């Protein structure tokens, strides 16, 4: 049965920083929500673009050639192969759209890296 979803409510229920959860699937992509604060890690995704949409708060995405500042209701797409480092000075809630093959922190593995199995856990 098709049910309405609230990404804003789902993100607010999360209890871990930088631990995205799959909210829905659209063809070969996942729609995820995350609750973030602090710094994730410098990384890239060789074969996948990554869409960031800010539901609440603000996000800074550091790039090798600049910075993208996002506020509530704003989004950007980090193209495949572009090294980036997401940073949230204060609590921030995100909606992410990524292909199912996208690894959380690309080839970088840190204590914050989450497997797709972890990301698919029920909210």
Automatic annotation (TrEMBL):
InterPro entries: Cupin_2, PKS_Associated_Protein, RmlC-like_jellyroll, RmlC_Cupin_sf. SUPFAM superfamilies: RmlC-like cupins. It comes from the Bacteria. Pfam families: Cupin_2 (PF07883). Residues 38-97 form the Cupin type-2 domain. This is Cupin domain-containing protein. It comes from Dyella lutea.
């Amino acid at each position: 049965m098709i049910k309405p979803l609230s990404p804003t409510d789902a993100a607010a229920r999360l209890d871990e920083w930088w631990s995205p959860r799959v909210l829905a699937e659209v063809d070969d992509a996942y729609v995820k929500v995350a609750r973030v604060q602090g710094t994730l890690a410098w990384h890239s995704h060789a074969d996948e673009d990554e869409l960031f949409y800010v539901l609440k708060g603000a996000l800074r995405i550091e790039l090798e050639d600049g910075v993208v500042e996002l506020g509530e209701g704003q989004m950007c797409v980090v193209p495949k192969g572009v090294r980036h480092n997401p940073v949230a000075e204060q609590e921030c809630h995100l909606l992410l759209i990524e292909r199912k093959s996208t690894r959380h922190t690309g080839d970088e593995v840190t204590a914050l890296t989450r497997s797709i199995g972890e990301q698919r856990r029920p909210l």
